[in-house]
Amino acid sequence: MTATTALTAQNTLGVDDVCITPPGFVGKQIGACLADIGCDAVKIGMLASAETIRVVADSLRKHHVSTVVLDPVMVSTSGAQLLPGDAVRDLREKLLPMSTLLTPNIPEATLLLRDADIQYKSPSGLEDLKTLAKMVHQLGPRAVLLKGGHMPLTKDYMKAHSDDEKAITVDILFDGETYTLIESKYLVVKNTHGTGCSLASAIAANLAMQKKKKQTPTTATTTTTTTLSKQQQLQPPQSIDLPTATRLAVYYVSAGIRTSDPGLGHGSGPINHFHNMQILPFSQGHFIEYLLSHPSVAPMWHNYTHHPFPTQLARGTLPEDLFKNYLVQDYLYLTHFARTHALAAYKSRAMSAITASAHIILHIEREMALHLSYCAEFGISRADLEHPDRKESLACVAYSRYVLDVGQSEDWLALQMALAPCLLGYGEAAQRLYVEKESRTADQGNRYWRWVENYVADDYQEAITVGRDMIETHIAKQSPSRVQELIAIFVRATEMEVRFWDFDAHVEK
What we know:
Elements: E1 2-3, E2 6-11, E3 14-20, H1 23-36, E4 39-44, H2 50-62, E5 68-70, H3 85-95, E6 101-102, H4 106-115, H5 126-137, E7 144-146, E8 168-174, E9 179-185, H6 195-214, E10 226-230, H7 242-258, H8 287-293, H9 298-305, H10 308-315, H11 320-347, H12 351-377, H13 382-385, H14 394-409, H15 412-435, H16 449-456, H17 458-475, H18 480-501
Parallel strand pairs: 4-5, 5-6
Antiparallel strand pairs: 1-10, 2-3, 4-10, 7-8, 8-9
Domain Thiaminase-2/PQQC: 294-502
Protein name: Phosphomethylpyrimidine kinase
InterPro entries: Haem_Oase-like_multi-hlx, HMP/HMP-P_kinase_dom, PM/HMP-P_kinase-1, Ribokinase-like, Thiaminase-2/PQQC, Thiaminase_II
């Protein structure tokens, strides 16, 4: 939950203007959040005015907020003044003493010390930075995180004076007794917009999560500016692991900087806040629709489901020799298809998935019986089909062995994706052809019409539903990169299906 203290007109090049939210309204925002949902941790960012600072401090005291992360936003990354000079003293006197953690960068730390009339030594290395953190701690916060990004250090922990010397940055956490040093490799990047805000927010979120685990099961979230999440009101502060919460937040922001998009804007662009999140490009339960419209799938899928072979078959114009060759090879392929589904059952851990594979195998058995009846109509006996000298076509070998290889070398879901083009495509092609005006039924003299009827039948459509449901259930658990790998398997298997229907695929020589 967020209480917005100011609006800024800004982009990656700088801040053009600031519109301060009326302080009284800021207080109402905070009160509305804390009086209803409460919070585990508060992160304070840009405050904009002395009066706003006083309102925020009063609100936090009134609602007994025990965990406060204060980012003393005074100057933006682009150099714009974000906190008036007369407000610095109010920030130091009213908010620092109630802060769990203060997170200044080096310029902000020195500004706070100057405002308190405290003399300090300009830092020349790590030891001076530790002293600076200790001096800021004496201003009242329970702990200080002095951010070291403004002063890169050499490998010997001294201030770097040239780009070649810049090796590391060190963030220094000091709680009054112990120093915790968090080292990061110095990054040469332009996208550092909002890093301080992101770091403080991440620390507050981590602290809230720790409190959630140690106290009652509540919900905690944080964003920017003055940010609120679920609080155990009126309870004493619990022991929290501040170093761990801080270290994880630093790593999060560092990764966000490394993975940011350098093409955003002409100045200091934003970091990538979503680097460690799995964001799937489809809504749960609708992967198949996404899959079939995917740029790498759609053209090949159209070639497959609108192939001339089933089209001519439905119209009764397919040459008989081509259909006979197809029947023979499809019968041989179905044996491997059944083997593959048996392998899928073996790879399954849930009884529902095992049963689904068994259901599909039983349908394949019925499909093979239909093939036998077709073959008998065209003078091909079962003995002919299963004769030891009967050879599989190269297209049949390539397709069946590809699917079996995926089954042996990949996981259960990859195998399902390799099988899916056959299961889904036959059904889609048959449903299209079943209603086309150009199609001819058996009553109209089409000897091939039973092929269409087989794949629009209820039992086959039920098998499609079962197969789709299995994929939909498991695909939502995959990472985005794994989804792309599975799509590639689907595309390759679809290519095999197209080749299986090509008119020259099964010509006997």
